[in-house]
Design goal:
The protein has helices at 2-15, 27-37, 55-70, 115-130, 152-158, 163-167, 176-182, 213-217, 255-271, 309-330, 349-361, 376-380, 407-427, and strands at 74-77, 83-87, 97-102, 139-144, 202-208, 221-227, 229-238, 242-243, 278-280, 284-287, 293-294, 297-306, 333-342, 345-346, 366-371, 386-391. It is of the alpha+beta class and 430 residues long. Strands 1, 2, 3, 4, 5, 6, 14, 15 and 16 form a nine-stranded mixed sheet that branches. Strands 7, 9, 10, 12 and 13 form a five-stranded antiparallel sheet that branches. The protein starts with a helix and ends with a helix.
Length: 430
């Protein structure tokens, strides 16, 4: 009898479904739902091509709404096209706690980004319903629409959408306005936010890391400190176009040579100080783009990110200092045009503590780390406290058919989500 009990315990631990002092999700069911969801837009490479507002997206949304109803959620579609499942709480004076993520993918993406958090949230709701656990707070499970197109659904929820945003063309080739109508929303109601500060008690999101730290260090759970801010620039380098055969090397104003020096300077600036800050040059175009012409103009880019706005500015200042030297060396002129700026979204201290404590109570190891990628939580942080739970992504691969997270890690993440939700439900007073 003792042998049987020990073997059973080993099997439970291996499946990642062990939980101390509380309910546990059904890991097999959770992972089966992920596999079923991956069929909508499945690619030959084993990934997912389920861009928002496509037939694959519409079919997947129907599948997900069915799962939400099985979880005893009251399901509706809001004006932005987000799928919203509600479950009443025991105290009508308290605000809802929201959990969820998204199910749309990038073109030719993977099967886990967003989907782990979405299926994990539904499984948490299903576990609560099966165990007849009634939280004090109402529960909202949300599946945000078109996260990969610029967190469209969550932005609409907390800030509304401008006419320009609604008329922009999505990856599906439909305008956002057309897409929202197609999925059951009402774009005419999005000039104002759907929610305001104080409408939610908080938001929790489970997600794959999209980086390699947890996988490399063999850590079970990432406790997200916050989502990094970023500043994007379009950089135009003005030189002088001239004949490649007749212009002496010492008399050239070669904008592409200046760009090469600039790219190296960006890398050097980001690596010159300690920390996880990153800076990237992701595109470059030379004009006139002929083999026998010294380039007279280059258009390139800068992506500067960190959790600390002061570090973002520090890296940018180092780059600008290097640019002055490059201008002097090459006879060129740099023009910086800022195209986007997002302030860091810090996770709430109580939410971080609840995630860390819940993971450790389950016997899981944790690591505090920033998110270098954007998430719906970044938008929701404008109106309520947020927390994010990361699970390992093999080799840090994301937005790729090779994206993979172990089933046991997915189960671990969902159990941490469940226990964090229960813990916060007891702690939050609003």
């Amino acid at each position: 009898m003792k042998v049987v009990n020990i073997l059973s315990l080993i099997c439970i631990l291996a499946s990642g479904s062990f939980a101390q002092d509380g309910p546990a999700v059904n890991g097999d069911r959770l992972n089966a739902s992920l596999l079923a969801l991956a069929e909508f837009g499945k690619t030959a490479e084993g990934g997912t091509n389920r861009v928002a507002y496509t037939a694959e997206d519409l079919a997947a949304r129907q599948y997900v709404m069915g799962l939400m109803r099985e979880a005893k959620l009251d399901v509706s579609i809001d004006a932005a096209g987000n799928i919203v499942g509600r479950r009443a709480g025991g105290d009508p004076s308290l605000k809802p706690i929201m959990i969820g993520s998204h199910i749309d993918s990038v073109p030719m993406g993977g099967r886990y980004d967003g989907q782990v958090g979405s299926m994990g949230a539904i499984e948490v709701a299903r576990t609560l319903a099966e165990r007849r656990i009634v939280l004090k707070h109402p529960l909202i499970v949300v599946i945000f629409q078109n996260e990969e197109g610029g967190t469209t659904g969550s932005t609409a929820m907390v800030r509304g959408l401008t006419t320009e945003s609604l008329d922009s063309v999505s990856t599906s080739k439909k305008t956002v306005r057309e897409g929202i109508r197609l999925i059951g929303g009402d774009p005419d109601r999005l000039s104002t936010p759907l929610l305001k500060k104080g409408d939610l008690a908080g938001y929790l999101e489970l997600h794959i890391e999209q980086g390699g730290r947890l996988d490399q260090q063999k850590i079970n759970i990432g406790v997200v400190q916050g989502i990094v801010g970023l500043r994007w620039f379009e950089i135009t380098i003005h030189g002088f176009a001239n004949h490649a055969g007749t212009t002496p090397m010492g008399q050239r104003q070669d904008s592409l040579l200046a760009a090469a020096k600039y790219i190296e300077a960006v890398n050097r600036a980001a690596r010159s100080i300690q920390g996880p800050q990153v800076a990237t040059v992701g595109k470059i175009q030379a004009f006139p783009g002929a083999t026998n012409v010294v380039p007279g103009k280059v258009i390139t880019s800068l992506d500067d990110r960190d959790l600390d706005p002061a570090k973002i500015e520090h890296v940018l200042n180092k780059i600008r200092q290097s640019v002055k030297l490059i201008e002097s060396e090459t006879g060129t002129k740099f023009e910086f045009k800022e195209t986007a700026s997002f302030y860091p979204a810090l996770a709430d201290e109580a939410f971080k503590a609840a995630i860390d404590a819940s993971a450790k109570a389950l016997g899981l190891t944790t690591l505090a780390l920033p998110s270098g990628a954007g998430h719906d939580a970044q938008e929701i942080a404008d109106i309520c406290p947020v927390g994010m739970i990361f699970v390992p992504s093999r080799s840090g691969i994301s937005h790729s058919p090779k994206e993979f997270t172990e089933p046991s890690d997915i189960t671990n993440g969902a159990n941490v989500l469940l226990q964090s939700l229960i813990r916060l439900d007891k702690q939050l007073t609003k």
